[in-house]
Request: fold
Amino acid sequence: MIKVSASIMCGNSLKYGEELKRLEEANVDMIHFDMMDGSYVSNIAMGIYLLEDMNKATDIPFDVHMAVWEPSPFYETMAKAGADYLCIHPEAVRHIHRDVQRIRELGMKPGIAINPSTNHGVLREIIQDIDLVTVMTVDPGFAGQKFITSQLEKIKAIREMANKFNPDLLISVDGNINTTTIPQCVKYGADVLVAGTSSIFKGEDADYKKLVLEMKDCGK
Ligand code: DX5
Ligand code: ZN
Reply:
């Protein structure tokens, strides 16, 4: 089943409480929470206190994407703050296996985010230990970028690897996901769609419920 994970960074930051209510009414499956450290990516966004408060305000699971160098000192705090999925970048950690085990021990579901220029081969030794792969369809760091088409073949290759070694693995796509790019992503094997400025966060008057349904429909 196709899931929608709403990228809350793209919401109105003065009205996050209201945004969460609108997203609940729209039946989104997850909240995609982008943490950015100003070093791994050239942007700074979304801290731990914000996650803690948002988690108190909603029962929607949080899919946290750490675009952060050396995120390991924060895993325990992230678990306490309410991260359900915790996705890390293989380039940003010293020992991916150890980090994935630690994230699991703390009660979170580990995920790995793959940049457009990173080969999916990095997943082969770890795919059985994770619950989520986030395929970046833009370079991480900013909303509003253009979809990188070459990532479609990568989604397909990861789905084939998952069919063999971890059939329950969720594959999410992050970056410029809209009604034009969704059909291809789903055809190639994605099942979680990160919804940002390209699909649902279109201002005060946007009907999130309708837009979420459109996303799910065009992935059928
Ligand atoms: C990049 C972010 C973006 C964003 C999605 O690190 O994860 O992909 O939230 O938003 P749009 O739809 O603007 O690409
Ligand atoms: Zn993200």
The chain has seven helices and nine strands. The domain at 3-218 is CATH 3.20.20.70 (TIM Barrel). Helices lie at 16-25, 48-57, 75-81, 96-105, 151-165, 182-188, 208-218.
